[in-house]
Amino acid sequence: MQLSYRPYPLQLQHTFTVSGCSRSQTPDVLIAITHQGLTGYGEASMPPYLGESIESVCDFLKRVDLSTFDDPLRTDDILSYVMHLDDDEPDAHNFSAKAAIDIALHDLAGRILGQPLWRLFGLSPERCTYTTYTIGIDTREVVKQKVREVEGRFGRLKVKVGVEGDRELIRSIREVTDLPLTVDANQGWTSPDEALEQIQWLQTQGVIMVEQPLPKHDLDGLQWLTKHSPLPIILDESVQGPADVIRLKDCCHGINIKLMKCGGLAPARLMIQLARMQGMQVMLGCMTETACAVTAAAQLAPCADYLDLDGNLLISNDPFLGGMQVIDGLVTLQSAPGLGIVPISESFGFSEKEQ
Q1: How many CB atoms lie under 10 A from the CB of residue 119?
Q2: What's the Cα-to-Cα distance from 28 to each of 63, 96, 121, 220, 318, rounded to whole Å?
Q3: Which residue, 61, 121, 96, is CA-closest to 263?
C-alpha cells in the first residue's frame, strides 16, 4: 500500500464564531491510501480545541508503516495497529490523524468490494434524517443574511449561543425563519441555573435540542441540568471516545459523535452501540471538513437521532465532488463504492510515502 498526505487548509466562507473563539480557516491534512490501482481518501481536520496541528498530524503519519499488511480489507488489524501506535506517549492527541487513516481504509475497502460503506455496515439509507446548517455568532444583520442564504435548502438550523446577547440572536433568526432550531452553547453558560433559564426560554422559540450547555468537566451541573431540562441535552466537548459514553450516561440525554474526536468510523460505530444499549440519543456531527470526512460520517446517519453534517458546506475550497448530498434538507446517501467521492484534481501534490 502507498500512503500519501499533504496539508490543505480549509477556507471558511464566513468568519466562524463560537463561544470562546473566531476563525476564518481550519488546518486540515488530506491523505490517500492506494492499493493495486484503487485509492481511498481520508482527512484530518483540526479545530483549535482538539490540541492537534498540521505538524503533529504529519509527524504521526510519518510513523505509520503499512508494509506488514498485505490485505487492505483486514481493517481491524490495521486500525488496531494505528490506534496503539502512540501508546508510549500518554499525552499525545492524534485522534484526527487516526481518523484520516480509518476513513481512507474504509473508503478503499468499499472501492475494492464495489459497495458503499452504508451497505457494508448493513444500514438503510432511507432512515437518514435532516441535517442542521450551522449559524455562527455574528451581528443581527449578518446572521439574518446567513439564514436567507440557505433558505429552502435545510429543514433545521443550528445556532451557536453561549454569549451575551443569545436571546437577541435567536429573535433575529425568528424574524426570517420559523424552521426548528437546535442550539450549541459550546460550554458558554457558566451555571446550571443560568442554563436552565435559557433553555426554558429557548423552548418557547421552537428550539428542539441543546448541545453542550455547561463546561465539559462540570458533571454534577450537567447531571442536575439533564434532570430538569425540558429539552434534550446532547454533550459534545465532554465526549471523545467509547469510554466516555458509559461515564456520561447520567449527565445527558445523548452524545455528539465526531470522527475527528474519536478516531474514525470504527470507534464511532462502537460509540453508537454503547449509547443505544444505555438508552441514549445519538447525534452525528462534524468539524469544518471537506466532503471526504463529512461523507464518511454520513455513512452512519441512519443510526442517528440528530445530524449536523454541514462542514463541507461552510468552506469555499472543497477538493472533492460527489459523496453525501443534502436534498430538501435530508442527508441523502449515494450508491457509489466506498465514500463515492471524486477528487477535483487528479493529483493533490501529495508528498508520497511508499509502503
Answers
A1: 17
A2: 18, 9, 27, 35, 11
A3: 96
The distance from CA 55 to its chain's CA centroid, rounded to whole angstroms, is 21
Q: Is the pTM of this model over 0.85?
A: yes
pLDDT averaged over every residue in the chain: 93
Q: How far apart are the first and last CA of the chain?
A: 5
- The Cα–Cα gap between 278 and 250 comes to 10
pLDDT greater than 80 at residue 355: no
Angstrom CA distances, 185 to 20, 195, 202, 257, 321, stand at 10, 9, 12, 17, 32
Contact 262/94 with Cβ under 8 angstroms?
no
**What average pLDDT does range 234-241 have in this prediction?**
96
Give residue-wise pLDDT tens across range 290-334: 999 999 999 999 999 999 999 999 899 999 999 999 999 999 999
Strand-strand pairing, 320-322 and 341-343: antiparallel
Q: Do 39 and 33 meet the contact criterion of CB atoms below 8 Å apart?
A: yes
Q: Which three cell numbers stand for residue 75?
A: 481493517
SS3 286: coil
Residue 195 has a CB neighbour count (10 Å cut-off) of 25
Closest CA to 127 of 335, 304, 310: 304
Largest CA distance in the chain: 60
Q: What is the pLDDT of residue 353?
A: 46
Rounded Cα gap, residues 228 and 134, in angstroms: 26
Summarize the confidence of residues 1-7 as an average pLDDT: 93
Q: Look at residue 20 and tell me whether its pLDDT is greater than 60.
A: no
In terms of DSSP H, where are the helices of the chain?
Answer: 54-63, 75-83, 95-113, 117-120, 140-149, 166-174, 192-203, 219-228, 242-247, 259-262, 265-277, 291-298
From the number of C-beta atoms within 10 Å of its C-beta (0-12, 13-18, 19+), residue 76 rates as exposed
Identify the three-state secondary structure at position 272.
helix
Residue 25 backbone phi and psi in degrees, to 5: -150, 160
* C-beta atoms surrounding 122 within 10 Å: 7
Closest by CA position to 318, among listed 112, 110, 41: 41
**Residue that wins the pLDDT comparison between 243 and 13:** 243
